[in-house]
Amino acid sequence: MPFDHGIMRTHHALDQLINDAERNLRCLYSTSNTIKQAMLIRLRNGYLTRPFRNAYARTDYWKSLNPAEQSRHIIRTLSQQFPNRVFAGLSAAAILQLDYSWSLHRDNTVFIAQKTGTSARTYSGIQRISTSTSAIASMLHYRTSTGVGAVFLDLPPESPRIAEITIGGRKPEITNIVPITSPAQTLVDCGLQFSFTQALPMFDSAARNKLVTSDQIIEICDQSRIDCSSVLRLVHYMNPLSENGGESLCRAIIIEAGFVVPDLQHVFVNPDAPWKEYRVDFVWHTPSGRIIVLEFDGTAKYVDPSMTHRQGIQDVVHSEREREDNIRKAGVNTIVRTTYDEVRQKTPLINKLLEAGAPMTIMNPFTERAADSNWPDA
Predict the structure, then answer these.
(1) Cβ(319)–Cβ(308) under 8 Å?
(2) Closest CA to 71 of 89, 44, 47
(3) Rounded distance, CA 67 to CA 44, Å?
(4) Crossing angle, helix 33-44 and helix 12-23, to 10 degrees?
(5) Contact criterion met (CB below 8 Å) for 296 and 343
(6) Do the bridges between strand 263-269 and strand 277-285 make them parallel or antiparallel, or are there none, so unpaired?
(7) What is the pTM of this model?
(8) CA nearest neighbour of 292 among 320, 343, 328, 322
């Protein structure tokens, strides 16, 4: 049933809390019994929603947020309520804005670190993760001319050096400081919890954003008493050349299916127009001399004005065909296109690669090692 604003009396203190919460990208929580009663009235009529214990948001505003940003709102709120908590695992990955599938937030669990003991759910919505190191970092949120910005600090929240931080030559107006496990520890925890296909986008994006090196991750694994073979496999395939989570997921499916690891972001030059360069998402140079290209097509390529340069869909499709013609002139034999839906379903992507003759490691194990060493450490 839709709520009726007319039945609610104006509550200026609550309205101010709602405005401040949205302005600072977090939820609001009760600060007095009067505020709590006003919140409950608005919760019952649907004006407010309660996504977490003692965390509220305006319903329409909350629905406008994607699952990852909803999680970040809850975490920022909890960091204010419980300043000593250190967020870990998927929660730290969300604050670091690593790439991953939003479906991982399906149960809205918040993960916090504990130094000793067994990882366990303490109460509904909170799960503790035992970490092998005590390295704590911070995500500092600050006011900008258009909203709220964020900067990663390899410092604990209590560090006096934070007071000396300047952004753009001036001291920032800080809205939140969220304690998180170090990026390396975060990746280890996520690599142990999630599957290879779920975790590889996190590892790729951390490397791409220069948040971590492979040595830092391996060092934590060496200190752990837990079998970290799944994490070491992720480190082996981690590649900062992957441009987004969709490409990382696509590559993870390719690896899991047994295909040779493709080269990423390879540049081809049209011999008839050497000043024109064309960068492709994935490429295989087969032992027989054939060149196979795989292009990951996101919907945004056709509908996002920032990516289409405000061209119509027909113009974009024409440009793509012209691009394919020039790539073929550069020596490419086969061009395969796939979409996020095909990648998510796995079978359509695998069938396309099999039909195209993409090489498989089980047929030529040497090529996996050769194709896997094309990126520098972050």
Answers:
(1) no
(2) 89
(3) 23
(4) 80
(5) yes
(6) antiparallel
(7) 0.86
(8) 328
Beta strands in 291-333 (DSSP E): 291-297
pLDDT value for 308: 39
- Alpha helix segments (H runs only) across 194-304: 196-208, 214-223, 229-237, 245-256, 300-303
Q: What's residue 225's pLDDT? A: 86
Whether residue 276 contacts residue 326, with contact meaning beta carbons closer than 8 Å, is answered with yes
Average confidence score pLDDT of the chain = 87
The DSSP letter of residue 161 is G
**Nearest-10 crossing angle of helices 245-256, 229-237:** 110
DSSP H or E stretch at residue 283: strand 277-285
In the chain, the amino acid numbered 220 is I
Which amino acid would we find at residue 218?
I
pLDDT tops 50 at residue 302: no
- Band of residue 306 on the pLDDT scale cut at 50, 70, 90: very low
Give the helix/strand (H/E) hosting 42. Answer: helix 33-44
Assigned architecture for domain 245-371: 3-Layer(aba) Sandwich (3.40)
Yes or no: say if 86 and 136 are a contact pair by the CB < 8 Å rule. Answer: yes
- What residue ranges do the domains of the chain occupy? 5-64, 72-189, 245-371
CA distance 226 to 359: 35
Centroid of chain to Cα 70? 14
CA distance 37 to 30: 9
- At residue 323, the pLDDT reads 86
Quick: pLDDT tens for 316-347.
454 677 888 889 988 999 999 999 999 999 99
Question: How do 121-123 and 126-130 pair as beta strands?
Answer: antiparallel
Token digits for 143?
A: 């006011």
Look at residues 116, 151, 153 and name the one whose alpha carbon lies nearest to residue 131. 116
Using pLDDT thresholds of 50, 70 and 90, give the confidence band for residue 122.
Answer: low
- Which own/partner contact pairs does 64-72 have at CB distance under 8 Å and 24+ positions apart? 66/102, 67/102, 67/103, 67/105, 67/106, 68/94, 68/97, 68/100, 68/102, 68/105, 69/25, 70/105, 70/108, 71/105, 71/108, 71/110, 72/25
